[in-house]
Write a structure and sequence with these properties.
It is a single chain. The strands form three sheets. Strands 1-9-8-5-4-2-3 form a seven-stranded mixed β-sheet, with helices on both faces. The mean pLDDT is 97. The protein contains twelve helices and twelve strands. It has two domains: 227 residues, 3-Layer(aba) Sandwich (Aspartate Aminotransferase, domain 2), CATH 3.40.640; 125 residues, Aspartate Aminotransferase, domain 1 (Alpha-Beta Complex), CATH 3.90.1150.10. It is an alpha/beta fold.
């Protein structure tokens, strides 16, 4: 089986863990501080970075630090992982779901504009699959209505929009360091921000409300990153840009060689990092039946791992549907029935890529 995703953990990561374990300093300490500084330098254009224990915590801590809470609304896409909407709901605020634009699977600015109310406090674009959202248009809406931008960059390490790294546009951005992301710390997340007051609030919130021991300033959480996880992340940070180039090369091959599906276009001014290489099955109105048949055949007949991200939009999940009764998001529904994410990770060999292309052609009948 060619795996859909494959974390790359090698001797350097193991040695880094051993080094930290030998020091006896395992909880948040100097490794976390060093990782924050290095992450900011490499992936956030020198903004302040604050490490936490997951990408969801990064979103949650960022929103709380930005003052989002009960009575507020934050506009989010429905076509994303549930952590996006969850993080808003966890603050006591209301996630308001907007539609996506059809080509790049990111928030549709016109749908966002239509969703703004007097309670709206922010817009949370997701740079889905590693493709940047349309930040020019979303920022214009935010400026027009005096709203904050909160970036969900969980899947978009090193992506850029008009030459600017994602994670540097909003009041804050949140990155995930889960094992299948483009780089990992085994588990973890990072908040990046250009607002030092917001950064300090995140530091307080992640550590029971204190920067100095026993001097609790606010009611906080325990969402710290350990030095063990930070040590893994520091090693991975030194490799992620090289891995990104491999992902882009793999994507370019698939772009040129896939038949029977719609390959993912890249917007002008955007640099995609291909956390996922997501194609569409060009069949309308069958409830996803043809897509599901293709996924099953790729896995069973050709041993090509693939995923469907995401088959149930957030606004129809049992956990989040309460926020959106009767909502209709046609492009979101269409994508949920058509998308397939194919392997694109940097461990693929040329033979794997050839096999993926041949398998897709075979199961779609494109060569007939």
């Amino acid at each position: 089986m060619i795996p859909a995703a494959k974390p790359v953990i090698g001797d350097e990561e193991r040695a880094a863990v051993d080094r930290v374990m030998r020091t006896g300093m395992i909880a948040q300490g100097p490794e976390v501080k060093a990782f924050e500084e290095e992450f900011a330098s490499v992936l956030a254009a020198g903004r302040t970075a604050v490490a936490v224990n997951s990408g969801t915590s990064a979103l949650h801590m960022g929103l709380v630090a930005a003052g989002i809470g009960e009575g507020d609304e934050v506009i989010v896409p429905s076509f994303t992982f549930a952590a996006t909407g969850n993080s808003v709901a966890l603050t006591g605020a209301t996630p308001v779901f907007a539609d996506i634009e059809p080509e790049h699977f990111c928030l549709d600015p016109e749908s966002v504009r239509a969703a703004v109310t007097e309670r709206t406090r922010g817009i949370m674009p997701v740079h889905l699959y590693g493709h940047p959202a349309n930040m020019d248009a979303l920022q214009a809406i935010a400026d027009e209505h005096d709203l904050q931008i909160f970036e969900d960059a969980a899947q978009a390490h090193a992506a850029t929009y008009r030459g600017r790294q994602v994670g540097t546009f909003g009041a804050f951005a949140a990155f995930s360091l889960y094992p299948t992301k483009n780089m990992t710390s085994a588990e973890g997340g990072m908040v990046t921000t250009g607002d030092e007051k917001l950064a300090r609030r995140v530091r307080l919130l992640r550590n029971q409300g204190m920067e100095k021991q026993y001097e609790n300033e606010v009611v906080g959480y325990n969402t710290r990153m350990t030095d063990v996880h930070a040590a893994i992340g520091r090693v991975q940070l030194g490799k992620v840009l090289g891995w990104t180039e491999r992902r882009r090369a793999n994507a370019a091959f698939l772009d040129a060689n896939l038949r029977g599906v719609v390959v993912p276009p890249v917007a002008e001014g955007a640099e995609h990092v291909y956390h996922q290489y997501t194609v569409r099955v060009p069949v309308e109105g069958d409830g996803g039946a043809e897509r599901d048949r293709i996924v099953a055949a790729l896995r069973a007949e050709h041993k090509v791992g693939c995923g469907v991200y995401y088959p149930i939009p957030n606004h129809r999940l049992e956990s989040l549907a309460v926020f959106s009764p009767g909502l209709e998001l046609p492009e979101t529904e269409r994508a949920a029935q058509q998308v397939i994410s194919l392997p694109v990770h940097p461990s693929l060999e040329q033979g794997d890529l050839d096999r993926i292309a041949a398998a897709v052609e075979a199961v779609t009948g494109a060569g007939a």
